[in-house]
Write a structure and sequence with these properties.
Elements lengths: L10 H9 L2 E6 L2 H4 L19 H4 L2 H6 L1 H17 L4 H12 L2 E6 L5 H5 L4 E3 L2 E8 L5 E2 L19 E5 L8 H13 L2 E5 L10 H8 L3 E5 L12 E3 L3 H12 L3
Parallel strand pairs: 1-2, 1-7, 2-3, 7-8, 8-9
Antiparallel strand pairs: 4-5, 4-6
The chain binds 2'-O-acetyl adenosine-5-diphosphoribose (OAD).
């Protein structure tokens, strides 16, 4: 269904995407905005509005006040668990079924791509629904909820933390290597719902472009990437992605 917000998809993009056997999609917080999850650069809501994500999602913040950081992530886990994937997430599942070599790289930690049914997911910044011991790095699935915030690892006593990448931390090496390889090999690269401000993720579209891929951006705003994109599609991913899939692979 085309509404006034969905721009016309250029016919040559539909032809290129239909003919492509290798497609990479990089998603950012914008793809989850229509699921009710605030983006990073959007104002925080409720009691957390006095904090900036940069002041909570960092090793320094955790050292300074582990309980506050743990409680912020508990709040965000609640937000994420009650959110539902939107039409944009489901359109990417449909695209994965149509393209022989499809890779979904996400900066999001909200698990919505997996819940929508995507499988070939590379989580560059981790996943908020996973918890790990801050000392040994092992994933932990049980802890004493009644304990003070944050709970401790029952094995070594270390503080538990979310299994996400914090500001200033390195990305998981394996995930980044796979993402860069995919970007170098693809014929079409779509950057969806990302401001393109945070590296190394923001390098991926440029790596694809250098490898002669066609670069598509889906975002209601212009971003750092817009000037180098082949096809800038201005609008909401929840409207544009389903339209792109329907027109490229009509039932
Ligand atoms: P940002 O909050 O920086 O950017 C979200 C982008 O989504 C903006 O460009 C919005 O214009 C766009 N947007 C909003 N609603 C949209 C919609 N319905 N459809 C399409 N686009 C929409 O979030 P990210 O680019 O994901 O890193 O931020 C990247 C990283 O910065 C995050 O992963 C996080 C943060 O620091 C870490 O936590 C390590």
């Amino acid at each position: 269904m085309i509404d006034q917000d969905t721009p016309v998809i250029p016919p040559e993009l539909i032809k290129t995407l239909r003919a492509a056997h290798s497609v990479v999609v990089l998603t950012g917080a914008g793809v989850s905005a229509e699921s009710g999850i605030p983006t990073f650069r959007q104002a925080q809501t409720g009691l957390w509005q006095k904090y900036r994500p940069e002041d909570l999602a960092s090793p320094e913040a955790f050292r300074r006040n582990p309980g506050l950081v743990w409680d912020w992530y508990t709040w965000r886990r609640g937000l994420v668990s009650s959110a539902q994937p939107n039409a944009g997430h489901y359109a990417l599942v449909a695209m994965e079924h149509q393209v022989s070599d499809f890779t979904l790289i996400t900066q999001n930690v909200d698990d919505l791509h997996r819940r929508a049914g995507s499988r070939a997911i590379i989580e560059l910044h981790g996943n908020i629904l996973r918890t790990r011991c801050s000392k040994e790095g092992i994933l932990v699935s049980e802890w004493n909820e009644a304990a003070e915030s944050p709970p401790h690892c029952q094995k070594c006593g270390g503080l538990l933390r979310p299994d996400v990448v914090w500001f200033g931390e390195a990305l998981p090496t394996e995930a980044l290597t796979q993402a860069m390889h995919a970007a170098q090999q693809c014929q079409v690269f779509l950057a969806v719902g990302t401001s393109g401000l945070v590296y190394p993720a923001a390098n991926l579209p440029r790596i694809a472009l250098q490898a002669q891929a066609v670069l598509v951006e889906i975002n209601p705003q212009r971003t750092e990437l817009s000037s180098v994109v082949t096809y800038p599609l201005a609008g909401l991913s929840g409207s544009i992605l389903p339209e792109l899939v329907t027109q490229t692979w009509p039932k």
